[in-house]
Write a structure and sequence with these properties.
This protein has 451 residues and is mainly alpha-helical. It has helices at residues 14-45, 48-75, 78-103, 107-135, 141-168, 172-190, 215-231, 236-250, 253-264, 269-297, 299-319, 323-351, 354-369, 372-386, 388-407. It has a single domain, classed as Growth Hormone, Chain: A.
Amino acid sequence: MRGVGAPASLWRDRDFTVFWLGQALSVVGGSLSLVALPLLVLAATGSLVQMGLITVVTGGTGILTGLFAGHVVDRCDRRRLMIACDLLRGLLLGALPLVWLTAGPAVWVLYVLTALVTALKTVFDVAYVTAVPQLVRAADLTAANARLMGTFALGTLAGPVAAGFLTAGPGGEWALGVDGATFLVSAVSLRWVTFGRHTPPPDDAPVPRPTGASGARRLREVFAVGFRFLWGHTLLRPLTVLLTLLTFVTMGATDLLIYRVREDLRQDAATLGYVIAVSGLGVIGAALLAGRLRRALGFGPCWLGAVALIAVAVAGIGLSGSVPVIAALAVLFMFGTTLGGVTSMTLRQEVTPDALLGRVTSAFWTVHNAAGPVGAAALTGLGARYGVPAASVTGGALCLLILLAGLATPLRHGRPTAAGIRCRSRGRRWCTPRRIPPASGTAPRRRTRSR
């Protein structure tokens, strides 16, 4: 169990508070990019398909990086790795306004920038998920994750509004530059955080000997370690499959909303910024209620209920011609995605041993994000050909099918327990918390068995 002794208030935990505030500030920058990047592409090309392709690049890069991100996180000092990712993202995004001024608008620059920043973001996010259990006790995980999500909502309230004004004024490239500055601040804040105070002691079980395989084969084996843990767990297995299908729908949903407001309803960038900012209320609401709902209902009902809300929101955004109604549906969408995200992340942190958490998180994200780029391309392509209403209704119907499938799995009454892990092993390949392969190619350790 992570952490022992009397519980302490998260408000009095200096390390968590510094981590929490530093990352909340960086979300303001991320919210700027959420609006500014698609608008930059739209201003340069006027094409919904090009907007979808940027989303495809984001998803595809995340999948490729996810194959090795967990291995890197489990091998490296997580704090230093996160600082390095922040510094590099800050420099890349900060350089964009200069490139835009000297070379002029160039869509290919945005594709390259998106790929590099996404790769760094994937590594950072895996390290971020593994860091939270090292900062707080196991009993505080849901509260900590919910507080992070809720505070991040403050950034989503301010960021899109600022992005709308920056895009309408100096330009979207300056909004991305400001995003880069927030990453630099995040890097500085991480230097004041100490990880590992709540890390469980290492397991005394023997570890398997490295196979000495080639680089490509070793990479596959490293990824397979996390995947076997996912597939051996009675709740993580259906969750991974259903999230893969859900991501197929939701990754392109933001593009549909942006196109619906800007092109179909002929609203300006500032109005779009307000709509996305208001959606942050859904994040705040979910953050406040996630802990209570999880305790009262369990993981499965919370997650499946979130899918139902997402289905209603995705379909309604395409059917409504009213900006206030679309804003309300965006709130519902963000409530569902936040509730599902908090409960899903907490579940993985609860049932996964610390030494394996990076690889399990990386495998989880890689697998369930695999359908995202295809879904984004399909959804935006469908919207370009048949209109956003048709694409949105199709997306909502797919979400309802995912919900019905989930009701036929253990998720309908799922609560995480140690007994939920079932191991299938072959030779020296292990998937249980008791047998964890080393993250690096070190020699096996011999331990003395106590009697």
